[in-house]
Design a protein that fits this description.
Layout: H1 4-19, H2 28-35, H3 39-51, E1 56-58, E2 64-66, H4 69-72, H5 76-83, H6 108-124, H7 127-135
Antiparallel strand pairs: 1-2
Helix pairs in contact: 1-3, 1-5, 1-7, 5-6
Length: about 140
């Protein structure tokens, strides 16, 4: 459902949220190594999130990535929107161009509630909410 880029971006954001602060930033190499993700690819994803003010970064010897309080309160749907866009939540589950309630595909009525529920979940949960679950040991983001 989510692209690989979006999955990587979400995992990286959560890793940064758990392992950095404004005083102690984390570098791209450390994030990539800890999550076992390709550094160059991940770097492009994270820079996109910086451009959209979802992630903060500083350059220089003590530079790196971190999340401020506003970013921690960012709904997960915003990350999905920046990386993947929101078309998924309006498209047909089988990829038909003109699927609707009046002219449904074979899975339209079964697929719609799942798509709607996923969107609602991503709108309600913030980066901070997901970080708390990981901090409590109830979830993980490493392979």
């Amino acid at each position: 459902m989510l692209s690989r880029s979006c999955e990587y971006g979400l995992r990286a954001l959560l890793h940064v949220s758990l392992n950095s602060s404004e005083e102690k930033k984390i570098g791209i190499k450390e994030v990539a190594e800890n999550l076992e993700l390709p550094s160059a690819y991940l770097s492009k994803i994270l820079q996109n999130l910086v451009r959209h003010n979802i992630l903060q970064s500083t350059k220089g010897p003590n530079g790196g990535f971190y999340l401020n309080e506003k970013s921690m309160n960012t709904p997960v749907i915003r990350v999905v929107e920046v990386i993947d866009g929101l078309d998924f939540f309006h498209k047909c589950g089988m990829g038909l161009k003109k699927c609707s309630g009046n002219k449904p595909c074979p899975i339209h009525h079964q697929f719609m509630p799942y798509r709607t529920k996923l969107k609602q979940l991503l709108e309600e949960k913030t980066i901070g909410d997901l970080s708390i679950v990981i901090e409590k040991g109830k979830a993980f983001i490493n392979n």
